[in-house]
## 1
Amino acid sequence: MIVLGIETSCDETAAAVIDGEGHVLSQTILSQIAEHVPYGGIVPEIAARAHLAHLDKLIAKAMHDAKVGYGDLDAVAATAGPGLIGGVLVGLMTAKAIAAVHDIPLIAVNHLEGHALTARFTDNVAFPYLLLLVSGGHCQLLVVEGVGRYRRLGTTVDDAAGEAFDKVAKMLGLGYPGGPAIERAALKGDGARFAFPRPLKGKAGCDFSFSGLKTAVRLAAEARPPGALLEKDVNDLAASFQAALVDSIADRVTRACAMFRGIHPDGGTLVVSGGVAANTALRAALTQTASRSGLTLVAPPIALCTDNAVMIAWVGIERLKLGFTDTLDVKARPRWPLDPTAAKATGAGVKA
Ligand code: KG4
Ligand code: ZN
């Protein structure tokens, strides 16, 4: 079984070819960071145009490197949402064209399912497992029951974790993307200097909130006289912010572990995935949190936690094995929750 995967939902244009045993035959990825840096964040229109400019060549290179022809493909899988709709349309329409011309099945992939199933590709994790999905657009705790079967336990009531990293980095003049910049600054800083709030810590349930923490960092930065924010201050603010965010996430995950064990007493794995799962401090805290709760943490390699096309191709393989394919009239979706039955979280600016 050979599947071509395409990812264009955010600021990475990527294509990969993998086989049914999970071997990566090829992968290409082009980050648009340089194109967005002047604006301090992702500009959807620029992202869509960049995907359009580069995707064809990236797919051709992936096919060439994999040494396969289109006739060898068993399916083409592309992200069909959620994400920036212009970019999603570029990838999905390209996949539809390949499927139509070469008469192969199309698989419309939920980008979040890509992050969710990566641990099965890397570590062969069995269903069910508990998933912490932490990325630029999402922060959720889910029970992964099977392919296409998710039960959401908690979500953010305001910002996603990656969004909080990006906004705080911008505030501190650390640039974009914010997560890696905060992590680097935090390594040099004192995480105990500022006693920032741990949002929702100790509260029932396992929802998240980060906007109050973000405001606390802004107020602390503004308390310094204008122009007097020294490099040491920035490093200490970054370290104290990261410590508070990690602490808050660890508290929410502890509660989710207990809920998960209530539903699946035999389940033994906590998986973390999404761009923020690249954060070393978060990984270390989650290793402890999981083991205290009697679970084992599985964190895929960083390159497979941030956006990539291997995870999309892998969802293609998992779905194809179950006979889940899509018709050519499938629509691109800006919003696409993994658990459509989940009750709306209460709070401002709730994400799907
Ligand atoms: O999963 P991803 O690549 O794209 C989305 O689907 O959102 O996640 C990107 C997010 C960005 O907000 C970025 O700042 C964050 O992941 N991120 C990190 C780190 N590396 C990337 N956050 C904290 N620490 C990192 N090392
Ligand atoms: Zn992502």
## 2
Amino acid sequence: MSSLRGKTALVTGSTSGIGLAMAVALAKQGANIMMNGFGEKDAAIASVKACGVEVDYHGADMSKPAEIEAMIAATEKRFGALDILVNNAGIQHVANVEEFPAERWDAVIAINLSSAFHTSRFALPGMKQRNWGRIINIASVHGLVGSMQKAAYVAAKHGIIGLTKVVALETARTGVTCNAICPGWVLTPLVQKQVDARAEREGVSDEAAKLALVSEKQPSGEFVTPEQLAALAVFLCGDAASEVRGAAWNMDGGWTAQ
Ligand code: NAD
């Protein structure tokens, strides 16, 4: 329960879904946590604090580089260092390319891709100086394969896997590693919106829409859970993963094996 005691982790978008599970799992290993994200945050913060570590929150908007810079500086000031960076914040928009609002394209690229460039460039100097660090980018199977109506998301997720490889190469002779995790369908608020849209469009129940959504892509017919993804992140933070560099590690019920 203390493999990460004394370390500090910043998890972007940790008020909900996968990011919250990452924050809890890292806190259970003893890491202090800087949380971030929008929406109702008190319950999320309380659940991380319940793990018995120091927790703080910064409300940086991940589409704004100046706010990202302030958040990294605030983390280093509050905890003395930033050791583990989980780039998780993300949004989705679903439309055919010719109907895709340009403003939504810009927002998806800014939040799902450019934010990870900005957090990494501000966090890396301290990590390199201390010769220890972990950058974990939450990509997606959509960083490896495409799906219709997700142009911005697929472009951003392919991009973040490219960014992961470059950061991994630039840190290869240091104690800093950078890897991407590529989840398949995970039942979080981000996906529930797509379930709701499908249920309405096809006039079916919530359960039927969930089953149709997941079975279409994942041979297992099961959702991946946030806790399973968080366990992979904990592994990537450990000594056993010190030579895992530049990986795009899928956990997707078999989606990309097809
Ligand atoms: P979610 O909607 O439950 O959580 C997203 C988090 O990002 C929230 O905390 C939200 O407040 C935060 N966020 C959104 N815009 C922000 C901004 N501008 N600034 C700061 N925070 C912001 O979604 P989730 O499903 O947990 O997704 C988390 C990550 O996992 C995303 O990068 C997503 O692309 C990725 N992912 C999700 C799935 C899935 O099936 N749910 C699959 C593959 C990848």
